[in-house]
Amino acid sequence: MSAEKTKEASAVEDLYKAFGVLADAKDKAGEHESEFRSFLAATKGNVGEKRLASQFICRFFKYFPSAQDDAIQALFELCEDPDASIRRQAVKDIPALCRGCPEKVSRFADALSMLLGTDDTQEVSSIHAALYTLFSINMKGVMEGIFTRLLQTGEEEDGSDEVMGLIRERLLKFLVAKVKQYGDLDKDVEDYIMQQSKKLLEDVTKDEFIAVMELLRSLKTMATVQSRQQLVEMVVDQAALDEPFEASDPDCVDRLLHCVKSATPMFSKNVHSKQFVSYMCDHVLPVLKEVVSPDEETNIQLEVLKTFAEISEFTGDMDKLDTRLNTVFAALLEHMPPPPSEGSVEAASTEDPKLNFSQVECLMYAFHQMGRRLPGFLAEEVNSERLKDFRVRLQYMALSSQICTKRLKEALQGKSGELLRTDENKKRVVALKLFTNITVLVKDLMHNPPAYKVAITLSWRPTRPESKITETNENAPAAGAKRNITPITYDSSDGKKGSNPKQARTLYQPPSGKFSDKAGSYNNYNNGNSYGGYNNRGYRGSWRGRGGFRGRGRRGARGGAQTTGFYQNKLS
Question: Is 401 exposed, middle or buried (0-12, 13-18, 19+ CB in 10 A)?
């Protein structure tokens, strides 16, 4: 045993002697290649030799161009060493090597990326630290190395698919965090990220798709119309809008909603949503009742309508607008029945209406947004019967909405501070916004001809800084002047309009207790949570195979293969 320790001590001493020779030589260290190669040989030795060899190789690497390939290979072997302390030492030393040779950053970033398949949390932290340091040395080089690993394919062995999935997940999270932390990137770096992300999106799982979208939206270049349009086109490709919509397939529904939601922040008056709106009008709304929910808690029909309403604002010039607007109108009428009894709206108010206010808000908002591009849909003489029937339904909806609004205000009256923060009162506040929106939209559509001027914030969205509902009106009175408010009037049974409907009717009394589904409860609104909650439910693990998105879901694992070991970039 003593002889063995003596041998180890002698080997370590020889390494220090070689180090001294190279350190003393300074800029002429390249003249002593034999000493440098002794470091390479030490990577086959004991623990102490390996740790010293890692440090010394990285220290003098730049002076020996002819031995660099062998040195890189030796470091890769240390990164795969069975001893975790040796692996961590090699990872820690790599940034020192790259400071002297920035052109090697991409190669080492690729190697470090592959090491992220480890289960050792300390090792993962040291790899992240090394990659962070490499960013400050050569940012584009790090991106090249990371995307090389993300796009890597190879021979697949047992268990490798799970390891590669873990590596991709950790790399994407790292990229998103780093890009957000760094702030403004150089234009060539952002362009490179865009180009490589397009390739990556050809074969991703659902979670990877979401991460890539988050990465791209964080880029400074997304402030330009051209870049936002490119991102929308990338999402359109992922959404597979050239394929039929399978309402009975939860994965198909899930994919479409994720894609639309990813593209929604990009839409504006210059970046249009017409491809998604057209697809939903043609393929989704006609079969909305058949759409399958991935779980019992999700009101998937309402989620679809919310998503549709959010993108209807920026359709731009759309083909077949009359046909598609008619589809939206028909869907709206399904949720806006005429008064349930013959005669006037006032008489109908004494019965129990079956109204889904949440769905009405979504569809009425979408119709209002799209209808402003085709005002003749209701206003033309040929559509007079359509308008007449629609106004009766609007009157019935307005009356029911106003009654529910009154009851909500009574329930909220005198409550402030902590009382308004209870779950029940939060729901009431959101419901109040919903009924207010419907009332305002009805008033706009009740104009003769129907108007499309009012602007509202959908009830489930955060209130805009200018929280007041605004309406464009050239004849608006000056500040401080009295306004002449024209109330919504209701047709009587003889076809005449009454100026004071309150005198001719008995107020409708909603069912006892909280607003029932028949009366359009505000709870009905909350049966379908906002899309943020919908995203996080974790639907069925696979999206048609691995992802359901273009590439991975349809043809299985990319290229039918993935690499397995830690690093497969060894020199031949």
Answer: buried
